[in-house]
Amino acid sequence: MNILVVEDERNLADAIVHILEGASYHAEACYDGRAGLRAALAGGYDAVVLDIMLPGMDGLEVVHELRRHGSSVPVLLLTARTATQDKVEGLDSGADDYMTKPFEAPELLARLRALTRRKGDVMLDEVSFADIRLDLATHDLSCGDSSVHLSGKEFEVMNILMSSSARVVSKQDLLSRVWGASEASENSVEAYVSFLRKKLAHIGSKVQITTLRMLGYRLEVFAD
Length: 224
Ligand code: CA
Fold this sequence. Notes:
Blueprint: E1 2-6, H1 10-22, E2 26-30, H2 33-42, E3 47-51, H3 59-68, E4 75-79, H4 84-92, E5 97-100, H5 105-118, E6 126-129, E7 132-135, E8 140-143, E9 146-149, H6 152-163, H7 171-179, H8 186-202, E10 207-212, E11 216-221
Parallel strand pairs: 1-2, 1-3, 3-4, 4-5
Antiparallel strand pairs: 6-7, 7-8, 8-9, 10-11
Helix pairs in contact: 2-3, 6-8, 7-8
The structure holds calcium ion.
């Protein structure tokens, strides 16, 4: 499940991305209306979380343009305003639901579940890469008949690496997506990558987490 977040307050945008990733969604943020519209029109998203008050092009215009271009992607509008007129305008412009800021993470997730259910999609229940599978519900990492349970942070790091296929993921990216605004340092990332390497070896996978100096990590498949 791939979610686009369009919100110009970077802290809030990044917090929403973090909440979504914690719930095993893939999420990407755009920080202004035009970039958000371009990304949403490019497709590949199962839902868009869209702020109304945006620089350049506001959220109502974005959703209007999306519908005008034939996109039916579900849109959840965020608004700091509680005026009935904004909600009516939002829904009239083609949004599917709206949520007033500030909101709690469970409400955001519940509304997105409802929106994506309406679209008839089935939640992705596992990700796979080469000979390994990661169960998004149980957090078990498997290779053939062997499996091992991943702790919360191990799961999040592995989910990001596997979802990125063979692309390089930087330490800084892992740090901000898994640890958010906490006090963690790049040492934490290294420690968890080291735990994951041991677990990959334990289940007998040919997948290895390769370190690319100054760049980050990438999954690679090694032959015997
Ligand atoms: Ca805003």
